Amino acid sequence: MFALHEQLKFSMYNDRPENAAEMNKLIVSFCNVGIISMKEIAAIPLIVDIKCIKNVNSLTKDFLDPGEVTELEMLDDESIIVASGQHRLIALVKYQQSVEDELASLTKKHDKIRDMGTLTEDHLEMYNTLQDIMGNHMELLETMGK
User: Fold this and answer.
1) How far apart (Å, rounded) are the C-alpha atoms in residues 67 and 76?
2) Which residues span the domain enclosing 56?
3) Residue 2 is assigned to a structural domain of this protein
């Protein structure tokens, strides 16, 4: 859905203007609590013509086992209508961008230390700390769209 977020249709069933305050609350929640995924309460309902689903026979009926929920494969991406959740999706996209921006900044600092000639203990400690934080950010980005 991240890749398609700009072409998704929201207004047909949930015609509300974007609310920056609501999106900011969601972003703060993602930062503080994490992203709740694979739970019915956090699901973003989609309306899709079943003929446009490529893997219709392999779809699960519920969220009981998140490991068994298959990714939706579409034959026609333009047929997706989002019934609600526009603020959640937009907040997720903005949160993803902020994490990517922070990761890019951390990577620059990390590379700068790596390219130094002589390293002090403080440099080594900072290098290792940056590496840990970068790993956490990469893991977060990997799981964010699920």
Assistant:
1) 25
2) 20-144
3) no
The C-alpha atoms of residue 11 and residue 133 are separated, in whole angstroms, by 38
Give the three-state DSSP class for 113: helix
C-alpha 46/C-alpha 3 separation (Å) is 15
53 backbone dihedrals φ, ψ, rounded to 5°: -95, 120
Q: Is residue 7 part of a domain?
A: no
Residue 8 lies in a domain: no
- Contact at 8 Å (CB) between 23 and 91? yes
- Number of folded domains in the chain? 1
Residues 21-74 pLDDT 10s:
888 888 888 888 777 665 666 667 777 888 888 888 877 777 677 777 777 788
Residue 1's SS3 state is coil
Q: How far apart are CA 87 and CA 10, in angstroms?
A: 10
The torsion defined by the Cα of 138, 42, 78 and 11, in degrees rounded to 10, comes to: -130
Q: What is the reported pTM?
A: 0.64
Considering the domain boundaries, does residue 44 fall inside one?
yes
